[in-house]
Amino acid sequence: MKKMHYVVIALWLLVCSATSSSAGVSVGIGIGTPNMSLGINFSSVPELVPVPGYPVYYAPQASANYFFYDGMYWVFENNTWYASSWYNGPWGLVDPLSVPVYILQVPVRYYRLPPPYFRGWEPGRAPHWGEHWGPEWKKGRKGWDKRPAGPVPAAAPVPVYQRHYPREQYPKGEQQHQIHNEQYRYQPREPVVQQHYQRHGQKGPEHDHGEGHGHGHD
Q: How much is the pLDDT for 206?
């Protein structure tokens, strides 16, 4: 079942890549075009708390495996990773080979809705992604469980501007991109997130932490 699930995701991303190529967009999609609803429907930006030792936030009050890293929200649901630049989506499916290392390394205890197969895994360590995704994934992501060289990067500022857009005033489509460009000046470090930003015209001064609101608590 795990292998079949991985194959389905790979085929889906292959179709997206082919479609993008025919449209003149670069091939090699790490995050699919945001068009999915996951049933995540917060009334406003959820409280986000830093994961100690990682440039990642998690949402302790959410009934979801919900994180914020490098300028995007990340959700692990139905054995699949999704990402969005807005707190309620829409969500783009993430290629398992493209999920950032710091997301993969978040310890089990910070998953608020862990799947059953997490049971028995050490709370203070990362999930056993190699077991979950299988040999092909492990071959493509060697060293994912090793801390990257150098100091841990500073966490991206939480996009607090989104607090001005509660559920009843939540923007859609191109309006999201326009507001994001105007209000959020951080530029991501991760290649997969950079690719997503470029594809949707979300650009700004390189590594500008213009929002700089500390830990980003609500």
A: 43
